[in-house]
Design goal:
By secondary structure, the protein is of the alpha/beta class. The protein contains 4 helices and 3 strands; from the N terminus they run H-E-H-E-H-E-H. The longest helix is centred in the N-terminal third of the chain and has 22 residues.
Length: about 140
């Protein structure tokens, strides 16, 4: 079964929104000063994002920020470099391009939960009608 790119990104958005929502509920707000009305102040989440995912994730986070009291500080880079930054400085969300970096974060006790939001599969694109009859890597 093949899932279109748009459907995959929509599913990713739903999963990311769910993760962000879970984070929002687990964070404790500081107590309000006596006599002052409580107000919803935006929380800032530090998001480490693999460079290849950045265009889509930027769109998703921007849409999420418009309807929720949260802002994202995004660090973009290679997954290995981002993992090193997390070791030094911590963070809230890590969207890696490869599962191995998430597993490494878990082994270092940096990640309490790993949720797969997308899978990448290589594809071969051919000219319409496939005039060269390419059916696999050996044909290239």
């Amino acid at each position: 079964m093949r899932i279109g790119f748009g459907k995959l990104m929509a599913a990713s958005a739903v999963v990311i929104a769910a993760l962000i929502g879970a984070l929002m509920f687990t964070q404790q707000s500081p107590p309000a000063q006596p006599g002052t009305p409580a107000k919803a102040s935006p929380s800032t989440l530090l998001l480490y994002c693999a460079a290849g995912l950045q265009p889509t994730i930027s769109e998703i986070t921007a849409a999420y920020e418009t309807s929720h009291p949260v802002t994202f500080e995004m660090k973009i880079g290679g997954s290995g470099s981002l993992l090193s930054q997390i070791v030094v400085g911590g963070g809230d969300l890590f969207l890696a391009a490869d599962r191995q970096y998430l597993d490494a974060a878990s082994q270092k006790a940096l990640a309490t939960q790993i949720v797969a939001i997308a899978y990448q599969f290589p594809v071969i694109l051919v000219q319409k009608g496939n005039p060269k009859k390419i059916s696999g890597l050996n044909d290239l």
